[in-house]
Amino acid sequence: MNWPLAFSTLGCSGLPLTDVVELARSTEWLGLELRAADDEPVHVGLSPRERAAARELLDSGGVTVLTVASYVKVARGAISDDECVADALAHADLARDLGAPFVRVFPGAEEPGPEADARAVRRLNAIADRLPDGVSVLLETHDSHPQGVDIVRVLSQISGKVGAIWDVMHPWRTGEPIAVTKEVLAPYLKHVQVKDVLSPTERTPLPLGAGTIPLEEFYTALWELGYQGWMALEWESKWHPEAVPLAEALRVKPSFTR
């Protein structure tokens, strides 16, 4: 099975959108996760005219915008509920304006536990009630909630347009078997991120298949689930500048046949 391929602009941070589109077209990774931050071409500070121009460029370039990758942290205690919800909704409005169906959010708790879970549930329910049409929020296996079981403790208490992103590295690096992640995330899974690294502690990005993440098992799990969404390479060279350039990493495509 060949899933449609995407990449995150985290791997080409600051690259103008025209060049991002050209990279996508030249490599045939035609989906995009757009990192939303002040140092990127896409962020919540764009004017309506700038948003319309960006959407026109992306649409005419033949790429599919999947996700606005925000840095909203729904379980973080250092911000208020109102601040968190407003930030998430601002990113949801950006996603709507760019034609993206999803906004990525992180858990981001300072300390995991029942209070952090309750905070995330409360905020995600508030966000879900106010999302623009056509946009859903996806909570990623990451930071304070790296495993599928962590994410599901939260998502099982949410009503509305909220789902999960399975970032393959974080459940694996913290010891959750792929079979467990697959089972618990199945009802919520909307998007997946693929990557490879040398070990759970040495996380410089490596081309797919060059590290030790059990990618074949991951692909098999997705096939067994009947997953039909996109597969996005999250090449974290923003945080690991020693990694090879994204364009080189995109030469290696996921290899799975059923």
From TrEMBL:
Keywords, alphabetical: Isomerase
Keyword Iron-sulfur in annotation: no
Domain of life: Bacteria
Cited Gene3D superfamilies: Divalent-metal-dependent TIM barrel enzymes
Stated name of the protein: Sugar phosphate isomerase/epimerase
GO terms of molecular function: isomerase activity
Keyword Acetylation: no
Domain Xylose isomerase-like TIM barrel positions: 22-248
Bilayer-crossing regions: none
InterPro entries assigned to the protein according to its UniProt record, in alphabetical order: IolE/XylAMocC-like, Xyl_isomerase-like_sf, Xyl_isomerase-like_TIM-brl
Organism placement in taxonomy: Bacteria, Bacillati, Actinomycetota, Actinomycetes, Catenulisporales
